[in-house]
Structure formats: C-alpha cells, structure tokens
Amino acid sequence: MLRRRRIVHRWVRAGDQREVRETPLEAPIPPASGTELHDAPASPPRLTAVNGSGMADRMQVENVHPIRLRLLLEIDRTGSISAAAERCGIGQPSASTHLRTLETAIGQRLVIRNGRGSSLTAAGKIVAWHAAKILATLNSMRWALDARSAPSSGELLLAASHTPSLILVPPMLCAFSERFPGVSLKVRTLPSEMVVREVARGAADMGIAGEVACTEPVLRHQLLIDELVGIAPAGLLGSGRSVSRGEFARHSLLLGPEGSSTRMVTERHLARAEYRPGRIWAFDSGEAIKRAVAAGLGVSFMSRLLVDEAIQQGEMVRFGISGGERMMRPIYALQPNLAELTPHAAGFMTMLMNAHRNGTPAKQLAEG
Questions:
Q1: Which CATH class name applies to 225-328?
Q2: Whether the domain at 155-223+329-367 and the domain at 225-328 fall into the same CATH topology
Q3: pLDDT, tens digit, for every residue of 34-51?
Q4: Of 69, 72, 168, 201, which residue is the least packed, with the fewest Cβ within 10 Å?
Q5: Topology at the third CATH level for domain 5-137
C-alpha cells in the first residue's frame, strides 16, 4: 500500500527560487492517556510555506494534537522528555517525533535540550500555558458527556485532604445530590500524600489534595492557589507582624501528620528562611491544632481558608516570618492516570472544576 506524502514548498531567499521537498504524512497518533481523544483523523495533504529554519510561517492547527500539548506540559513539569513520554504512555522516540511535529506546526522552537534535561523556551511556556487551558476544556467536555449518561444510582468514593474536606467539598454536596439523587457519596479525609496514593491505586474514584512531593501516576487539575499563614495565641505575638528567628525559637511549632501538604510546605519555607522552633508537636487533626494554638500551646501555619474567621473573632492572631516568601501552594483535583473516571466522579469533577473556574468565594478568598 502506497503511503501518502506531503509536498512542502520552501522559498529560498537567494534568487527567490522555490525549493520543493516531499515528506511523508505523519504516522497515526497513538492513544493519549488523559486526553481521551483517540483515532484523530489524518490531515489531508496541503501546501505550506516554511521559513529558513524549517518552521512553518503559519500555524498548522491540524497538527496541534492534544497528546502533543500534554507532552509539552509534562516536559515542563518533569524537565525530561523520557519522563514526559512515560507519563503520556508513549515511547521516547515517538515523543521526540511528536515534539518536532508540534514545533513545526507552531513555527517556534519550544524545547531546549541540555546535559541536565530539557526545559521550555519562552515560546514553549506560552504554548504550555494555553495548552493547559485547552486540555482542561476537553476534559470538562468529556466529564459533562459522561455525566449525562451516568446511571441513576451508585456510589462515589472521594478522598480529600483536610482543607478541601472542610472548605471545598461541602458546598458541592447539595448540588451533587440534586443532580444525582440516587448516588451515595463517601468522603475519606486523609493527608494529601495518602489521597494521591488512594487515587493512584484505585481505592478512591477521585481526590482533592494540596501540593505534595509524590510521583504516583495521577492526573492533576489545579483548582486554586491556597495561602498558609502563621497563627499564634492572642497576646503571644503582635498581630500581623513578622517575628524574628530568635522569637520564633522560643515557641513550640504545632504540625499536622507526615504526608500533609500543609506540613510539607511549612517545613520547606521555614528551612529556606532558617527558622527553627523550640520544639515540634505533631497532631493528626487540623482542628486539634487550631484549638491547641488558641489555648496557648504554641504556634502553627494553616490555610487562610480555615483560620480567617477565628482571627477575625480574636481567638488567635496572624504573624509572618521576616524576609520569608508567602507560603503559597496549589490545591488539585485528582483522577487516575490509567483508568477512566466513573460517571459519578466525572459529574462531580465537572461541577468542581466549573465552580472554581467561575470564581467561588473560596477561590476569591485564596487569591485575595
């Protein structure tokens, strides 16, 4: 069977002559985990003017396929083409081919390779920013379609870390129960690292968790940016001011369990700022930490979403660390990387993503 070939006309500036070269049409695109766009139709042959670097003068939209956009995002996240290929479920040679095709289609160099790995160019970062929005829109479309065909009864298993369980999940329950009246919802509150693992191994249909250093195979969809703030008993520290290293060292630091996103981000920022507490007390419950701080047991760092009301009521005061950066962390909705969302999970995911895309009070507070 003869393979179709593409004829590309290339203008050669010296003498204004036209060079004609013939290249085969690209091979069929492999299925892309997470994009759910399989069997993309082959594009028809077309004439494309290219510049002196071999890049297209105009973007070839038909070659900007979701698997290539996702590959670019994964390169940005991992700093490695081979790691990005593994996350996309394709081989490294195929990934390199996809990347070259995308660069040609865009007309810009997108990735720089060096001895330590790969990174995005300025143009690559622009494309990656738009790619994230495109893939989120495609996922939202798929979830909405799945939700339409969802059966009227069943069960949704949701794993969520402490902050999402208290702030993000409850506002969704009423709308979800109205849309899926026959579906029961079970929510497990776990440290963020455990949430990621539960979703990865299929013990939960989906999850909501903060940033953690975990390499489990899950797909992450950012919901909002959350800020952690220092909290202390009223009268122990001046409200709203920064404390010195020496003053901080005189107090106990109250932390959550191992695997907690709040704990990981807190320890990372304190280490960078070279702040060391007098001692550390560990708790399994965020609510227990709030009560312990209010009772004068020590200081802590928690999400603004959880403590702003208590601060306004005078139960505790807010403080910062001198010269330290604001403690910001993303909160993600999580789904399995290698398995389809259940119809009920697809419906909940759609509602969750749409709510925070439209700017819920929780998101406005986190970004305020």
A1: alpha beta
A2: yes
A3: 433 333 333 333 333 344
A4: 201
A5: Arc Repressor Mutant, subunit A (1.10.10)
Please tell me the CATH superfamily of domain 155-223+329-367, with its number. Periplasmic binding protein-like II (3.40.190.10)
pLDDT digit string, tens, across residues 179-229 = 888 888 999 999 999 999 999 888 899 999 999 987 788 889 999 999 999
DSSP track, 65-133: -HHHHHHHHHHHHHS-HHHHHHHHTS-HHHHHHHHHHHHHHHTS--EEEETTEEEE-HHHHHHHHHHHH
CA distances to 139, 152, 154, 348, 367 from 359, rounded to whole Å, are 19, 29, 30, 17, 10
| Most confident segment among 140-144, 160-164, 218-222 | 160-164
Domain boundaries, the chain: 5-137, 155-223+329-367, 225-328
**At residue 35, what is the residue type?**
T
> Cα separation of 245 and 276, whole Å?
7
Residue 22 is predicted with a pLDDT of: 40
